[in-house]
Amino acid sequence: MSWPDLIGSRQRRTNAPFLILYQNLISLKAIDFNPLEELTKMEDGTPFIHRDISWLSFNYRVLQEAMDTNVPLLERIKFLAIYSSNLDEFFRVRMANHRNLLRLGKKTKKELDKDPKVVLKEIRRIVNLQQEVFSDVFENRIVPELANHGIRLLRRLDLDDHQREYVEAYFQDHMLPFVQPVLLVKDKVRPFLNNKALYMTLWLKSIHEEQAEDQYALVKIPSDHLPRFIVLPNNDSGHNMIMLDDIVRHSVSWMFPGYEIIDTYSIKLTRDAELYIDDEFSGDLIQKIKNSLQRRHVGPASRFVYDRGMPDELLEFLKDVFSLEKMDTLREGRYHNNFDFFKFPDFDMSHLKNPPMPPLPYLPLEQADDYWGSIRERDHLIHVPYQSYESVVRFFEEAAHDPEVTHIKITQYRVARKSRIMKALMEAVELGKQVSVFIEVKARFDEEANLSWGERLEKAGVNVQYSFPGVKVHAKIALVRRLEPEGPRLYTYLSPGKFHEDTAKVYSDFGLFTQDERVANEVARIFSFLETVKVPPAPFDHLLVGQFNLRTKLEQLIDFEIEQARQGQQAEIILKMNSIQDAKMIKKLYKASQAGVKGKMIIRGICSIVPQIKGHSEHIEIISIVDRFLEHARIFTFYHGGDQLVYLSSADWMVRNLSYRVETAFPVYATALKNEIMDYIHIQLNDNVKSRSLDLSFANTYNHNASDLAIRSQVETYYYVKRKAEQWPKTES
Fold first, then answer.
1. Closest CA to 167 of 232, 227, 221
2. Which of 515, 543, 521 is nearest to 378 (CA)?
3. What is the C-alpha to C-alpha distance for residues 454 and 618, in angstroms, rounded to an integer?
4. Annotated catalytic sites, by residue?
5. Is the Cβ–Cβ distance between 326 and 68 less than 8 Å?
6. What are the structural domains of the chain?
7. Which residue, of 168, 496, 552, 655, has the greatest Cβ tally within 10 A?
8. Strands, E, within 395-444: which ranges?
9. Taking Cα atoms as reference points, which of 360, 394, 389, 361 lies closest to residue 375?
């Protein structure tokens, strides 16, 4: 059913088939999380879910999308990839952190809120449960459904003679140079396992000795050099393919002549991703980061995954050979590195993918004859990916080529590999502009890319500033100074999301264009601080800025709602963000709930606050939405006695964001734009297709209600934006 058809059906408000399609989901396999009680409260008994337990619950919501038969089949495979990619990063960062804390010893553990040993054990238990669900979904649901559509994922014993010849030739021609076979012997020099590389362990016996002892070997699966999914020739209709892993399984006997291959089991090791800079406050920080990056891929183990069918004696042997501990190991299914599902062949079967939702052009800026005049006339708000990112790119391209523009400033956290924005900045320097870029090189996993961009920009003549010691700059802001008849004017663009043309196609986010002096002057103040470092800026009256007034202003806004409620006035706080974990802010929200303030929250990921707990959070409701686009917008709204304050922000309510980063929360002053954001918020709050309730049960229950109207917020938002676009010619004229 296409989106227009779906919308049309929805208007009829009947018990039509679309209700069965969207409200009677398959029975999603539930996991009994039931985490230890000590991981769901603070030391004083205040309800508080440990951030990593909550994150695992979020990643299970991603896995739910792979289970949902209403999601197109190839999109369900993509959600398997997202789940796996998320989990891989989690182990390289969070799990590695817990292991390091555990190694520090008892004295340090007493200073922590939770015992790392308890946290590690609980994480492993939950992930093991999730991995069983993952294997069941892939092997018993998705693979059979692929076969129903003529896509057959074969194993080596399924091959016919022609396919077997093809596989053997493929191995000889393409794989043989990369497999690196080696016998494993205790107390000998052990082979090095590359980070995130796939390997096959072999259980062998010599065919020349009757009483030969078991032996073990290792072979690399060269997925870093070759496609993971190999399309096979077939003699009938449909499509056949085999995974690279199974080609190795089929071919290992040739590599070990004189041995019987009893069985094979796949393994993978991921390594700690922390950079471990000993001292950020002395010496050359950038050089220290470069040196640490070189060591990242040889760091200590953070997770050793193995085929759950592996015999205990082989697992113990491998732990000994690679110096692994029990807490390093984790059971998985037959295949690892399942983020490779991002590259699963689609065979041009568009009916097994999401219907297209092409970004809608934002005509008031994209086709404006006078780009800067359009921003002078009024503020503009774009909502990607429902709207095109072209108006943001044009902001920089116009600035680069406009002879009246003198200065361009921007913060860079993560940027596309091929970036028109960066290209425009370099062109601007050639045309005589003063261009300044602040690059945060501590953006995890983007350090190398950011350093590379920094070097390219410097060579082009851009004034580049780099990371502060001990602080991350996470604000996403840009500023243009333009000479005009009335005098110099500042234009600014602010967003919760990064300046990234690629993620703008899949992340749901907002961006604000304004020349409002209240905002633009304070953005300029932030850039002055970033460029001078030691000179504190003047107070901020409109922006909420991390390191200065972000936390205190948010507390004041909550306190105002509390006082309103105590006086019997209407009081409401609506928050949308990626994560909330800061204990002080959570206690403040509990206090607001106890005073009678209505709290509604839309949280994508980590959610340490617990709703609907008597004596704490009776007036707090929390939902989470996981759908085809990644929900990335951060919105803070306060009823404020009817004034309705609306902020967009780069900051989640995490300790790191509120205390250790330069963040921005910026007000939306234009009434029409505030109303547009509130419309969007209420569309999400009424989602009864893709929203889940968050609570202490960790059930992630879908919010399907008795309404005859199915509301899928991302689809609703797309058509809301489309209806608004149809009004532009009238509005602009």
1. 232
2. 515
3. 49
4. 474
5. no
6. 31-352 (3.30.1840.10), 363-538 (3.30.870.10), 545-732 (3.30.870.10)
7. 496
8. 405-412, 434-439
9. 394
